[in-house]
UniProtKB/TrEMBL annotation:
Domain Peptide methionine sulphoxide reductase MsrA, residue spans: 40-194
A GO BP entry: cellular response to oxidative stress
Reactions performed catalytically: [thioredoxin]-disulfide + L-methionine + H2O = L-methionine (S)-S-oxide + [thioredoxin]-dithiol; L-methionyl-[protein] + [thioredoxin]-disulfide + H2O = L-methionyl-(S)-S-oxide-[protein] + [thioredoxin]-dithiol
Keyword Heme: no
Protein known as: peptide-methionine (S)-S-oxide reductase
Keyword Signal attributed: no
Enzyme class per UniProt: oxidoreductase
Protein source organism: freshwater metagenome
Pfam families: PMSR (PF01625)
Entry GO MF terms: peptide-methionine (S)-S-oxide reductase activity
GO CC list: cytoplasm
Entry keyword set: Oxidoreductase
Length: 207
């Protein structure tokens, strides 16, 4: 990770604008959301493929692509790609937990990337591709920790190293929307790049 003293300065204000309508779901990218909905931020490699996985799930109200977990404010894609902003490519997922449980949401997360690869995902190498989860409530935090521990046992038994997923509260981070062309990218470019470097192993049920 870049040392804060070596990080890019970023920008006081956003240097681009992003339309607020989800190209697939027709919902807002930024809210406000109805009472009873939850939001979580996930990083699992390239955000194009990750966002597509989630917008297809019943119970997901909105998704977006962005940058999180970094130092430099209002970064651009080019700046994030240098590794000198500290951000990871992340997605925001707004969902109805009465339709899509947090456990099922996390099951999709763990099973659709390799959370042991550190600062890469498949052929994508760099701190901007690290695995991460930023939670917004205590229930999410509890389930994240329990599913991580359960999945760690499963993959360890198959020879995988320790899980490297960064886990922390979203309240301590700022989520910056990525440029418009990244939003719902694989809807706009159906044959575009997808990275799903997963383990092929399933998350067990937890009590």
């Amino acid at each position: 990770m870049v040392d804060p003293s070596d990080a890019l300065p970023g920008h006081r204000e956003p240097v681009f604008t992003v339309p607020d309508t989800h190209a697939v779901l027709g919902s807002s990218l930024t809210g406000p959301w109805a009472a009873g909905t939850d939001r979580i931020y996930l990083a699992m490699g390239c955000f194009w493929g990750a966002e597509e996985i989630y917008w297809r799930l019943p119970g997901v109200l909105s998704t977006s692509a962005g940058y999180m977990g970094g130092i430099s404010p209002n970064p651009t894609y080019e700046e994030v790609c240098t590794g000198r902003t500290g951000h990871t490519e992340a997605i925001s997922v707004t969902y109805d937990p009465a339709v899509l449980s947090t456990y099922e949401l996390l099951k999709v997360f763990w099973e659709n990337h390799d959370p042991t690869q550190g600062y890469q995902q498949g052929n994508d190498v760099g701190t901007q591709y690290r695995s991460a989860i930023f939670y917004t409530n205590d229930e999410q935090r509890d389930l994240i920790e329990r599913t991580r521990d359960a999945y760690a046992k499963v993959i360890s038994d198959r020879g995988y190293p320790a899980i490297t997923t960064q886990i922390g509260p979203a309240a301590e981070q700022i989520y910056f929307l990525a440029e418009d062309y990244h939003q719902q990218y694989l809807y706009k470019v159906p044959n575009g790049y997808r990275c799903h470097a997963n383990t092929g192993l399933a998350l067990p049920a937890i009590s």
